[in-house]
Design a protein that fits this description.
492 residues; Nucleotidyltransferase, domain 5; five-stranded mixed β-sheet
Length: 492
């Protein structure tokens, strides 16, 4: 039994990876996921769609690899964090998931800040009072959907839900519990007091589990639905950005991963837990390490929005993203002073402002689609620079920048990021993202591998160096980006 299955429940797609130990990826498969935003700031998905995707992906992986499910030694899952999935007493989904990027709970966050001693909460919970807290979303439900709130019997996350569908066992993974605001960071245990402070019903919280621990085993019903073998071990799961960082080789202080998925993340490794309200604090998958990190509400999701909004009905003869990149490459750095704030779902780190809104500022008749696309790409470069400034202020000095996930394949975007950061960015060769880290964690969890072995999957591709000719332009653009948000803050 040398096969390991990794599954990532992502914002824009469900991805599966089948690996053969010690160092071979046999197959990767994916299915798209629909992100719904029925009202401004909302972000919801259907957990049943994640499960349906998984039931299609597993047989495809086995068929493409020419292998049998009985050869799979373990299954690891990862997903966006902390999505909120709710079940009633009969284990039925109560509603669509409320995603980690959802910004509807600004009023509730403000109320919590008025009720809670923020410094005490930060020191105990490891994270500040912000829209990431599960309690803020549950408070919103109590106010706006009281019938749903009254029937909550289970609250957990995206990959917790998938693990339950696979094994019949309910748990909450350690980083979901930490970012949810219900973990005492000093003891690493769930805290009934913190749950009560934030508004999470204690009786609805399943037990906490470490990522590497065996959570349960595939049931007969799950085996019939997915094609997996009954009894296959499933480990506790992993936050997608943490799993991606492990798969990218981020294990040393000074390594910084910039992850360009449905949302854009920035993370680094450290051996100390130092809570800071500007960013999030998570556990690294390697025991004893921590991962200060930032997560934006959007990323590829806004690029996809731009394609739908501006390109409907246009035939580019191929990928619209690639065609728009080509247009942007012909636009000068700074997009002729067109500035975008990428706060289309509010914003999480480092400003923690659920009421922030997406902005395209400076439009004139001289601007075209290429300008808009370039300005969107540049907005995430500015947002990353903001995060890096905060990391430096916290005492984490970046040594090298690694870039991963789908957006990293855009040379135009990565050149923009390198120019704005004024630092080289290292693309990774054939990095499959979070599902690799999830799979490797499962392999360690069943004793089939050790942490060092994942280095066999880490390879470097091209190094993209900054263009010094663009430094002055982007310094001015960065200042304009900050000034624009300061002028508009509080208008919504």
């Amino acid at each position: 039994m040398s096969l390991i299955l990794g599954l990532d429940i992502g914002t824009t797609s469900t991805i599966g990876l089948l690996m053969e130990l010690p160092d071979k990826i046999l197959a990767v498969a994916s299915r798209p996921v629909s992100l719904h935003s029925p009202k401004a700031g909302w972000a919801e998905e259907d957990p049943a769609e994640w499960w349906g995707n998984l039931c299609e992906i597993v047989p495809e992986l086995l068929e493409r690899a020419g292998r049998d499910a009985s050869e799979i030694a373990a299954i690891g899952t990862s997903g966006m964090l902390p999505a909120v999935v709710l079940l009633d007493a009969q284990d039925r989904l109560l509603r669509a998931s409320i995603q980690q990027s959802d910004g509807r709970s600004g009023t509730e966050v403000a109320e919590m800040r008025a009720e809670i001693d923020e410094e005490t909460f930060l020191s105990r919970a490891g994270n500040g009072v912000n829209q990431q807290l599960v309690g803020a979303k549950l408070r919103w439900l109590a106010r706006h959907e009281p019938e749903v709130h009254s029937r909550i019997a289970t609250v957990f996350g995206s990959y917790d839900y998938i693990n339950w569908r696979l094994t019949g066992v309910k748990t909450v993974e350690q980083n979901w519990a930490l970012e949810a605001g219900v973990t005492d960071v000093a003891t690493g245990t769930l805290s009934q007091e913190l749950a009560a402070m934030t508004g999470v019903p204690w009786e609805a919280l399943p037990p906490r589990i470490e990522s590497v621990a065996v959570q349960g085993h595939v049931t007969a019903a799950a085996a019939a639905a997915t094609g997996l073998a009954e009894g296959t071990p499933v480990t506790g799961g992993a936050a997608d950005m943490i799993a991606s960082a492990l798969g990218a080789g981020v294990t040393q202080a000074g390594d910084v991963l910039l992850k360009f998925g449905g949302a854009v993340d920035v993370m680094t490794a450290t051996d100390r837990a130092e809570p800071d309200a500007r960013l999030y604090l998570d556990y690294h998958l390697i025991p004893g390490l921590f991962m200060p990190n930032g997560c934006m509400s959007t990323g590829g999701s806004v690029l996809n929005w731009a394609v739908r909004t501006f390109c409907e009905g246009r035939d580019f003869g191929g990928s619209p993203h690639a065609a728009l990149d080509a247009m942007a490459a012909n636009v000068p750095a700074g997009a002729d002073e067109l500035t975008v704030l990428p706060y289309f779902l509010g914003e999480k780190t480092p400003i923690h402002d659920p009421s922030a809104r997406g902005v395209i500022e400076g439009l004139t008749l001289s601007h075209g689609l290429g300008h808009i696309w370039r300005a969107v790409l540049e907005s995430y470069g500015y947002a990353l620079r903001h995060h890096v400034d905060e990391l430096r202020d916290m005492g984490h000095e970046p040594r090298r920048f690694l870039v991963s996930d789908g957006g990293a394949s855009s040379t135009v975007w990565m050149q923009i990021v390198a120019d704005i950061l004024n630092a080289p960015v290292q693309r990774l060769g054939s990095h499959p993202g979070s599902c690799l880290g999830a799979a490797w964690t499962a392999a360690v969890g069943v004793g089939a591998a050790d942490w060092d072995g994942i280095g066999a999957f880490v390879s470097e591709a091209d190094l993209i160096r900054p263009d010094p000719a663009n430094r002055e332009t982007y310094d001015a653009g960065y200042a304009r980006y900050h000034e624009l948000y300061a002028r508009l803050k509080g208008l919504h």
